[in-house]
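Lab notebook, bench 4. Still working through the backlog of constructs that have no structural model yet. Next entry is a single chain of 433 residues. Request: give me the structure tokens for it.
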Amino acid sequence: MTVQTTPVAEASAETLTETPEALVARLAADGRAAQRVLARLSDAQKAEALRAAAAALRVAEPVILAANAQDVAAGEAKGLTGAMLDRLRLDSARLAGIADAVEQVAALPDPVGEVISESERPNGLKLSRVRIPIGLIGIIYESRPNVTADAAALCLRSGNAVLLRGGSEALHSNRAILSAMVSGLEQAGVPGAAVQLMPTQDRAVVGAMLTAAGLIDMIVPRGGKSLVARVQADARVPVLAHLDGICHTYVHASADPEMARGIALNAKLRRTGICGSMETLLLDTQFPASADVVKALADEGCELRGDARARALDPRVLPAGDEDWDTEYLDAVLSVAVVDGLDAAMDHVAAHSSHHTDAIVAADPAAAERFLAEVDSAIVMVNASSQFADGGEFGLGAEIGIATGRLHARGPVALEGLTTYKWLVRGTGQERP
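Model written out:
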């Protein structure tokens, strides 16, 4: 396989002379034209194109890792946090995982054309609801280069074109990843404009994307609270929001001490920079091994900030301020509170959760079922680490993000969340009286 190594989205002099609105309009027109081609492709053709894109990513490993090294070096020079650098950094294993995820999406059932429901009216009209692509999706994201591949794969598999605007921290990585993928897609007969990366980091382009109603059909923001807040405030295009992950784990009085310890360590420390990382630990006042769980976390180097009762469990627990209960640390920092039973735990979650992922550790099935029923989050777990909050772990392949709102899609957004539906009505000459 021949893989293009020149980034397809390098800013040209022509691009830089366009206004942001003209640039977005031009790219959107190209994307919408490509989406019409995608609509004609079969399930097998889309799957084969993604397998070709995954193969191109593997062939382009030296180019992609060299580009990523540039980004990481620049990030270190700029003083990016350890969590940000972890999200940014690629190695052979991570790049292989990105290619694997593209292949996994290729192997998923095509949602387009699925009949959601069928019925027949008394007058003989036959009705059906059928899944269709949304159209052209704009994705605005920060320093995770894997989003470039994940978003491209999911959008293409679900018949959508995509316009990507990545963060400046991952500029070279994003361009190298997209270049490889487009090379593979084009060799499989898919127009390159089906997957486009914004060719400039001018922030005015983000505003132009957000106001491109009629050109872009949906915006998906992936990033920190300030990015998502701006998108939600300024968008004139429907938004599928991925808010911050202020994830709680509540250890119930009935919890198995060893299970509670293991889940707490994994939920916080496996990878601290992901949105499913636990940010607040709630310990029931009747749980007998709270001090052991806190000690295990502190022994692993986790900075703990707690209320008065949590500080009494271990001298290494620092005082928590009001802001700690509403902070997504994305680092080896954890807020800890001791609560008086299940109701108090759920009250705390309701007051401070971002409605992303919240978990209970409990041997009492009644307590577990109440937590599942009453906690209003996109993902609610029993006896499992919140780090499982991931589309791949849910069997969905890659994901666009975890939607924390209540409309259209919620939780890991994969293929189904990137479709809408239309009604098909079949008659035999009926006229409405």
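Notes after review: The mean pLDDT is 93. Residues 247-388 form a domain with the Aldehyde Dehydrogenase; Chain A, domain 2 fold (CATH 3.40.309.10). Flag for follow-up if needed.
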